[in-house]
Amino acid sequence: MSLSHIRLASAHARLARSAIPAWRHFSATSTTHPDIEPSRLTVTHTTSPRQLPPSSKLLFGRTFSDHMLRIPWAENTGWGAPAIEPFSTLNLSPAAVVFHYAQALFEGMKAYRRPDGAATMFRPDMNMKRMNDSAGRLALPTFNGDALIECMRQLISLERDWIPKEPGHSLYIRPTMIGTNGTLGVQPPTEALLFVICSPVGPYYPQGFKPVALYGTTDAEYIRTAPGGTGAFKVAANYAPGVVAQKAAAKVGYVQNLWLHGPEHWLTEVGTMNLFVVFKGEDGVTELVTPPLDGMILPGVTRDSILALARRHTSGGKQLQGLPSLLKVSERPAGRLVELFGAGTAAVVSPVDKIGYLGSDIIIPTGEDGMGPVSRPLWKELVGIQTGEIASEWNFVI
């Protein structure tokens, strides 16, 4: 079966929407109340410090560092004083709106230890922009992104020993915001909590890259998002409905879902990752293709970074060794399939070797190391930047 039967999501195939989304008019933030102020930050040290476990014992999202950051918000008073405190549970009312109306959002980002010992965060400004967009979509309070970055910088500086030193390891950072007022009723929250926790993690593929098999999930089975929905925002409610779809894919022998939208079965995302497809045209030009950001696709930081590196390569800027010299970046499906991969914070790049589609398997070529001719040099450059081996303006030094 040819991949021509399934297409990349395209802007002209979607419902037209206003240039200014309606949700922007309903942000809970008031300009008359205080924003996040790093100068008010207090630090309470744990009385029971722990040691970073051996890297062989690290499982993603299972181990957390000693401290966390908390910043409360109230409709009448604005953002309260930030506080770094010992990692602990949250005390919430059973009527808290986060439990009943899913008024919750989060971000995923990483801190790395450079060869010279310094610690860096990778493009935190991008995460702050997306987090504010998600907050506005849920009528949660927005905030000064630079101020939150400074608070996180101080948290990560305190937790520096929790950043593993081994290659491929990092400190995963999870900023989260939830509605906390205990009053039932579907309306903007009157109270909220922004908190940040940290988790040391190892490489996503510790034994080397392993291409995954995807199951093409159509709208007739399950749907990830729809035009005008929340697919372009990192909100908690997007993720729980996808678990049953992933279980269904696993039941028939596939690792993850390839989300297909509409009667044309447009390709949108891979599980919880952005999607990239590489074609080889009859003219010999390699084409890197990804769905556009038109309301259904999450604006991933890794996605943006891959596109920026590829466009820099094609425009005569920094040339990436191993990346085809005849390369173009676009949003149209065409030509002979060369490779397909997902892109996200956790895995950075996740190659795909098979797609189950309407009862048949589409085989995707991969190299001996599990990667392809385009994903390999892009992954190498991106990881080099993240770890500090390659100098870049994208790194925020802690």
Automatic annotation (TrEMBL):
PROSITE patterns: AA_TRANSFER_CLASS_4 (PS00770). It comes from the Eukaryota. SUPFAM superfamilies: D-aminoacid aminotransferase-like PLP-dependent enzymes (SSF56752). Its EC number is 2.6.1.42. It catalyses: L-valine + 2-oxoglutarate = 3-methyl-2-oxobutanoate + L-glutamate; L-isoleucine + 2-oxoglutarate = (S)-3-methyl-2-oxopentanoate + L-glutamate; L-leucine + 2-oxoglutarate = 4-methyl-2-oxopentanoate + L-glutamate. Residues 41-52 have a biased composition (Polar residues). One of its GO terms (biological process) is L-leucine biosynthetic process. The modification N6-(pyridoxal phosphate)lysine is found at K234. Keywords: Amino-acid biosynthesis, Aminotransferase, Branched-chain amino acid biosynthesis, Pyridoxal phosphate, Transferase. GO terms for cellular component: mitochondrion. Pfam families: Aminotran_4. Its cofactor is pyridoxal 5'-phosphate. GO terms for molecular function: branched-chain-amino-acid transaminase activity. Residues 31-52 are annotated as: Disordered. PANTHER family: BRANCHED-CHAIN-AMINO-ACID AMINOTRANSFERASE (PTHR11825:SF44), SUBGROUP IIII AMINOTRANSFERASE (PTHR11825). Belongs to the class-IV pyridoxal-phosphate-dependent aminotransferase family. This is Branched-chain-amino-acid aminotransferase. The lineage of its organism: Eukaryota, Fungi, Dikarya, Basidiomycota, Agaricomycotina.
